[in-house]
Amino acid sequence: MGDLDGLRELYDATRMRLVVQLTALTGDRADAEDCVQEAFAKAAARWKTVAGYDNPEAWVYSVAANAARSRWRRTRTALLHVRSTRHDEPTAEGLSPDHVELLTALKTLPFEQREAIVLHHVVDLPVDEVAARQGVPVGTVKARLSRGRQALATRLAIQTEEVVLGG
């Protein structure tokens, strides 16, 4: 068991932070928890290697984000259908309507844009670190951030106008 003590310490120190990050990324806490758990299971299977990395937490995040990306790709068609037929998003207990509105708007972005926005604006990573985590050039991250922010601004402005105009 001694070999896994470091994994237990990493898990205890980072699990909640990773779940919050993945919740912002996926828009669903249960999916986020599943992806983080899956990533830690993979870390346990490869712990001797992962423990030697400069930043094991970043590795676990990457594996969890990849799991989320895979889930998103597998269910993209179903989600598009559900979104086209659903008109109101249920409010999660303990979240303000603005928070739910933001999460709903984030879910409309392409996964790569959403991930860039979450990593940069929620996790507060610099653009070069976001680029490293996403495995793309810095310019690509800047473009994703710009397009994602524009899409969010448009989406949130439309929702605000509907409330003001009673639509």
Write the layout of secondary structure elements.
Elements: H1 5-26, H2 29-45, H3 47-50, H4 56-85, H5 97-107, H6 111-122, H7 127-134, H8 138-165
Helix pairs in contact: 1-2, 1-4, 1-6, 2-4, 6-7, 6-8, 7-8
Keywords:
single chain, 167 residues, mainly alpha, Arc Repressor Mutant, subunit A, 8 helices, 0% strand
The span between the termini is 60 Å
Specify the helix fraction band: over 70%
Total number of beta strands: 0
How many helices? The count is 8
Description:
It is a single chain. The chain has helices spanning 5-26, 29-45, 47-50, 56-85, 97-107, 111-122, 127-134, 138-165. The longest helix is centred in the middle third of the chain and has 30 residues, at 56-85. It is mostly helical and 167 residues long. It contains eight helices and no strands. It is 79% helix and 0% strand. Helix 1 runs antiparallel to helix 2 (29-45).
